[in-house]
């Protein structure tokens, strides 16, 4: 009985971790390339989640259309965030100093305040979700003794596709190479003819776009979301980005899986040895203890150098 | 000319202590003449207190302590559990504002100790890394409290709520007195720090930590001390605030509290003594009026205001005022 | 009578990953002298300053100041013992005024344990008067020109009342008139305050003119040591750094006759 608790917990943890990993890539891109500390990450994720839910529940549009719409809205939001908020802070500077970095943190923080309260006001604090929609398939799948929700499995598959696409974009295209060049050295990049402002704008669009797109994964996995859901995803995304190393998309993905695994394992262990009711919060606290340890002992991330 | 300048200067030469005094008198009068309810006054003084507490580490030393609310939570929980379980502490806090402060200092000293120990390690991180580590600390503490407190007493503390029984409750005028004393103390502390060697050292750390260390500033010790003092006042404010509310919930660890603090000091002016005071007054006023006229959207508007301030007036209200001259006196020289 | 040793750098080795920035460097500095430290870009001069001032911890070797081993001490303690430095890339505290910048030097320098705020202010004002920045005392440091920022670096260091002053390319980027001014200032400071100075400099005629002895670093190794005249005649130095011999001798010709 103990073992099956562990297996179930780990399987769920890993699925969640895959989703978390994909949902954190936008954050790592924005922070790694532009030194923008996006503390509004969770709220931006929810832009996508809420859009999909609204289109589905109120307009009857399929979540597949919602998926594309959330990407499009994300790109536009990214454009607006860049020109409205970030350009003045990081657009023209060659080296982002600590003080500028702190200003980006504060302005994204202002955005998170505005967004989260918009959710409360315009959408409300009741849970919202896709109801019984599960890709037109059975609602859950049995793997041996473990029962997993179809939506979680398919969300994980979509997560892998998103990460793969983003990785290819960054490694195989000219745009991606320019982005990585600016990340390494903005000054040198501008010497070889890359326009840093254009790259920063596009990076913001891609980062925000991939984040709202990941909102789809969250709404599938969580079944239902509330404005407060953002408050769990922002800090976890930071944990994952730090684990994976700033700007490292694949690192973030793996970081997400590691956190999911740690969560699942510690949850099972706490449930078996202490108390099942305490297991979820205490397991979450381990993720943050891991964060502090990594920050202190391996601040360049698990895969850095 | 010269003499006129001299007189004006001597008249408004020390606006900071005068403003702290004016604020105190206003609050006391508001209480005496029943202009505002006790709850309003407690919240108002609480706001300024937590803003001024965070200002010590974030404004002076430049360390964005995003998870500052962890100390609010620790202070509030330890206070509540202490009076719940330790009869003499309960008796002590019931003698009035002084009693609350004494028990509160016990709770907040533990929070300060946590800050000193954690700070000595975490303050090695800079910028966003530090900010995130403090968020991590807050969440770790919150989840631990959520996981453990219910098991101390499963019937009473369901969902980590510590609801104070009636024999533990105190008169609201006592919590008001305690909060007022705390507010004055933290404002005066800000003032004294700003004018001291310690304060100058902290500001040099904010400006360039490596250069400061090379110039002889004991950066590690100063940062840790600033973090500890900041935590002490935050925790004290948290203890009194939740006592006033009659109980403490895991919500005490909510990052929304840091939101309040940061918004106030950004509006008022980061790293200035008057910043938390002015920012607190403006924030409370905005909070109140916006709440009345635009319920629901008030915080959305507030978020937008903060974004505009960061983009167009990053030094806040005090920074804007400092650019002007009043009757030949450059405000830059007298506004702290 | 042989002069007392103030600083001795003993077999210092400092590596950055695979790069050996300093390789077994030995240098002795005597009380009251000006020692020139020269060498091509990347020779390790700034790195040596960082080791002396405690910013970097070396992989091997020791640094003694006033016969005390300071190798493992944190920078702020070393400053308090009486070593002050300027930075090659200026590091002003931008949002503080010029006066406040200088006060930090006084407050946390050699007299840190006894100086009061009032005294530090007085000391800072005197120092600003001395270096000629007094008119800018209330200006934010960010508003200064490069020359003024370099002078502020010097003022902050002098306000610390050091025994040993490390100057890292104090003259770089200045025009000839400014170089002249700064040189005079350094000489005057040295005489009035009985300083010992190590001076890293690329402006060759200046360092040849002001230094009593010169040490040459190349690829992290000390390749020569001697009077300016000896250095200008050392083949390895000419080859590694000074370029042509003619040119090297021209620097020496510019030298004032030694007293
Ligand atoms: N923090 C560091 N990390 C890695 N390498 C470094 C670091 N600091 C210096 N180096 C390297 O060590 C070598 C010596 O650098 P250093 O700055 O000491 O040279 P320098 O003699 O002061 O040169 P310059 O005349 O250009 O100022 C260089 O190759 C430099 O790239
Ligand atoms: Mg150098």
Description:
The complex is a heterotrimer of chains A (305), B (336) and C (259). In chain A, 78% of the residues lie in helices and 4% in strands. Chain A is mostly helical. Chain A has one domain (2-230). The mean pLDDT of chain A is 88. Chain B is globular. Mean pLDDT of chain B is 88; it is low at 1-11. In chain B, strand 3 and strand 4 (329-330) form a beta hairpin. Chain B has 16 helices and four strands. In chain B, helix 12 (255-268) runs parallel beside helix 15 (316-322). Chain C has helices spanning 45-52, 75-81, 98-108, 117-131, 146-159, 176-193, 204-210, 228-232, 235-242, 245-253; strands at residues 5-16, 19-30, 34-38, 60-65, 68-69, 83-85, 164-168, 196-200, 213-218, 221-226. In chain C, a hairpin with a 2-residue loop joins strand 4 (60-65) and strand 5. The longest helix of chain C is centred in the C-terminal third of the chain and has 18 residues, at 176-193. Chains A and B meet through helix 3, helix 4, helix 9 and helix 11 of A and helix 7, helix 12 and helix 14 of B. The complex binds adenosine-5'-triphosphate and magnesium ion (MG).
Instruction: Please report the number of helical segments of chain A.
Output: 11
Q: How many DSSP-defined strands of chain A?
A: 4
Oligomer: heterotrimer
Beta percentage of chain A is under 5%
Q: What are the distinct ligands in this entry?
A: adenosine-5'-triphosphate, magnesium ion
Spell the H/E element sequence of chain B.
HHHHHHHEHHHHEHHHHEEH
- Terminal Cα span of chain A: 42 Å
Distance between the termini of chain B: 25 Å
Major sheet details of chain A: 2 strands, antiparallel
- How many structural units, i.e. domains of chain A? 1
Range of strand content of chain B: under 5%
Return the CATH class of chain B. Mainly Alpha
Radius of gyration of chain A: 19 Å
Poorly predicted parts of chain B = 1-11
Mean residue pLDDT of chain A:
88
Per the principal axes of the C-alpha atoms, what is the gross shape of chain B? globular
Name the chain pair with the biggest interface and residue counts per chain: A-B, 46 and 47 residues
Q: Secondary-structure element sequence of chain A? A: HHHHEEEHHHHEHHH
Report low-confidence residues of chain A grouped into runs of 5 or more: none
């Amino acid at each position: 009985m103990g073992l099956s608790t562990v297996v179930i917990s780990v399987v769920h943890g890993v699925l969640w971790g895959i989703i978390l990993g994909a949902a954190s890539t936008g954050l790592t891109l924005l922070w790694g390339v532009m030194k923008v500390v996006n503390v509004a990450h969770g709220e931006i994720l929810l832009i996508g989640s809420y859009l999909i839910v609204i289109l589905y529940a109120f307009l009857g549009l399929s979540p597949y259309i919602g998926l594309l719409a959330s990407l499009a809205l994300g790109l536009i939001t990214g454009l607006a965030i860049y020109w409205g908020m970030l350009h003045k802070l990081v657009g023209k500077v060659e080296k982002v100093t600590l003080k500028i970095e702190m200003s980006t943190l504060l302005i994204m923080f202002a955005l998170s305040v505005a967004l989260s309260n918009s959710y409360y006001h315009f959408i409300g604090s009741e849970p919202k979700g896709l109801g019984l929609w599960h890709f037109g398939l059975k609602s859950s799948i049995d793997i041996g003794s473990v029962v997993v929700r179809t939506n979680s499995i398919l969300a994980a598959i979509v997560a892998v596709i998103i990460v793969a696409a983003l990785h290819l974009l960054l490694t195989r295209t000219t745009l991606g190479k320019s982005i990585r060049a600016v990340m390494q050295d903005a000054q040198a990049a501008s010497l070889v003819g890359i326009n840093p402002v254009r790259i920063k704008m596009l990076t913001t669009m891609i980062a925000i776009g991939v984040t709202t797109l990941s909102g789809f994964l969250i709404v599938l996995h969580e079944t239902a979301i509330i404005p407060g859901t953002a408050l769990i995803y922002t800090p976890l995304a930071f944990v994952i980005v730090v684990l994976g190393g700033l700007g490292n998309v694949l690192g973030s993905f793996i970081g997400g899986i590691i956190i999911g695994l740690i969560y699942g394992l510690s949850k099972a262990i706490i449930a078996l040895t202490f108390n099942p009711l305490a297991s979820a919060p205490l397991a979450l606290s381990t993720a943050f203890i891991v964060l502090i340890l990594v920050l202190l002992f391996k601040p360049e991330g698990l895969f850095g150098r | 000319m010269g003499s006129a300048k001299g007189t004006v200067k001597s008249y408004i030469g020390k606006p900071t202590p005068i403003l702290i005094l004016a604020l105190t008198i206003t609050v006391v009068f508001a209480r005496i003449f029943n202009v505002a309810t006790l709850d309003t006054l407690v919240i108002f003084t609480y706001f300024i207190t937590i803003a001024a507490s965070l200002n010590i580490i974030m404004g002076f030393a430049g360390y964005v302590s995003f998870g500052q609310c962890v100390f609010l939570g620790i202070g509030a929980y330890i206070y509540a559990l202490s009076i719940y379980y330790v009869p003499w502490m309960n008796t002590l806090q019931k003698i009035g504002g002084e009693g609350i402060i004494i028990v509160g200092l016990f709770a907040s000293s533990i929070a300060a100790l946590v800050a000193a120990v954690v700070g000595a390690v975490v303050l090695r991180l800079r910028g966003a890394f530090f900010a995130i580590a403090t968020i991590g600390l807050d969440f770790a503490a919150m989840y631990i409290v959520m996981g453990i407190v219910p098991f101390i007493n499963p019937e009473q503390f369901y969902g980590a709520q510590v609801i104070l029984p009636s024999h533990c409750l105190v008169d609201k005028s006592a919590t008001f007195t305690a909060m007022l004393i705390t507010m004055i103390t933290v404002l005066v502390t800000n003032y004294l720090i700003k004018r001291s060697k310690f304060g100058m050292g902290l500001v040099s750390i904010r400006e360039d930590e490596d250069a400061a260390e090379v110039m002889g500033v004991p950066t590690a010790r100063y940062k840790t001390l600033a973090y500890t003092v900041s935590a002490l006042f935050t925790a004290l404010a948290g203890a009194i605030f939740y006592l006033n509310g009659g109980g403490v919930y895991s919500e005490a660890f909510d990052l929304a509290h840091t939101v309040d603090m940061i918004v106030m000091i950004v509006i008022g002016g980061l790293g200035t003594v008057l910043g938390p005071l002015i920012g607190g007054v403006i924030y409370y006023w905005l909070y109140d009026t916006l709440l009345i006229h635009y319920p629901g959207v008030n915080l959305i508007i507030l978020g937008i205001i903060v974004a505009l301030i960061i983009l167009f007036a990053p030094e806040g209200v005090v920074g804007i005022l400092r650019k002007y001259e009043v009757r030949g006196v450059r405000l830059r020289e007298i506004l702290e | 009578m042989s002069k007392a040793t103030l600083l001795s750098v003993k077999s210092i080795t400092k590596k950055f990953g695979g790069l050996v920035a300093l390789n077994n460097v030995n240098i002795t500095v005597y009380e009251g002298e000006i020692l020139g430290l020269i060498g091509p870009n990347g020779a390790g001069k700034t790195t040596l300053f960082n080791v002396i001032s405690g910013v970097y911890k070396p992989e091997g070797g020791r640094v003694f100041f006033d016969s005390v081993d300071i190798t493992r001490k944190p920078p702020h303690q070393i400053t308090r013992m009486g070593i002050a430095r300027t930075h090659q890339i200026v590091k002003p505290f931008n949002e503080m005024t010029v006066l406040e910048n200088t006060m930090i030097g006084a407050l946390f320098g050699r007299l840190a344990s006894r100086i009061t705020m009032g005294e530090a202010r007085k000391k800072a004002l005197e120092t600003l008067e001395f270096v000629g920045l007094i008119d800018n005392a209330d200006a934010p440091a960010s508003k200064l020109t490069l020359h003024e920022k370099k002078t502020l670096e010097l003022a902050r260091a002098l306000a610390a009342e050091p025994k040993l002053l490390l100057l890292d390319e104090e003259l770089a980027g200045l025009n000839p008139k400014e170089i002249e001014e700064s040189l005079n200032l350094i000489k005057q400071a040295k005489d009035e305050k009985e300083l010992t100075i190590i001076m890293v400099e690329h402006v060759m005629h200046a360092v040849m003119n002001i230094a009593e002895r010169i040490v040459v670093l190349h690829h992290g190794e000390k390749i020569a040591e001697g009077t300016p005249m000896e250095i200008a005649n050392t083949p390895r130095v000419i080859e590694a750094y000074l370029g042509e011999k003619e040119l090297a001798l021209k620097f020496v010709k510019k030298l004032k006759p030694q007293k």
